[in-house]
Amino acid sequence: MNPANLQLEGIYTVLAALITALERKQILSSAEILDALDEAERSIEADTRRAGDLSHANQEAVRFPVRYMRAIAEANGPSGLKAGGDGRMPTFGEVATAIGRRKDV
Question: Cα–chain-centroid distance for residue 87?
Answer without folding.
Answer: 18
